[in-house]
Write a structure and sequence with these properties.
With 119 residues, the chain is of the alpha/beta class. It is built from 4 helices and 5 strands. The chain has a single domain, classed as STAS domain (Transcription Regulator spoIIAA, 2-Layer Sandwich), CATH 3.30.750. Helix 1 runs parallel beside helix 2.
Length: 119
């Protein structure tokens, strides 16, 4: 699994490639956690770019749920973008599409979250 982080104005884009499963969920959690602290009301938004993510297991979904709860508790915004069809299907089956804002592209997510954060 590869994780990349880019800052775009008032949003952090965390790109995840390969897969998130029980073997590397802790690594994903460790990479994401430092960014969650700045994701609060009026603060930085987080966009998880999943264009390179091929698969996510229940261990990975657990990390997504923890992140969403932490961000929501602070009044922040976190979203997912550019999901592959299999990952989108997993999100829908597990009802994570009700937990996360989902965007078809990272650019769409940046536009929506940056505008909302600035307002």
């Amino acid at each position: 699994m590869e994780i990349g982080v880019e800052i775009h104005g008032d949003a952090i884009v965390v790109a995840v490639n390969d897969r998130i499963d029980h073997l590397n969920a802790a690594k994903f959690h460790d990479a994401l956690t430092p960014h969650l602290a700045s994701c609060c009301a009026g603060g930085t938004a987080i966009i998880l770019d999943l264009s390179g993510l091929d698969y996510i297991s229940s261990a990975g979904l657990r990390i997504f749920m923890i992140a969403a709860k932490q961000v929501r508790a602070r009044g922040g915004r976190i979203a997912v973008a550019a999901m592959q069809p299999l990952v989108l299907e997993i999100f829908e089956i597990s009802h994570f599409h009700l937990v996360y804002e989902i965007f078809t592209s990272t650019d769409d997510a940046l536009t929506a979250l940056s505008t909302a954060t600035a307002a």
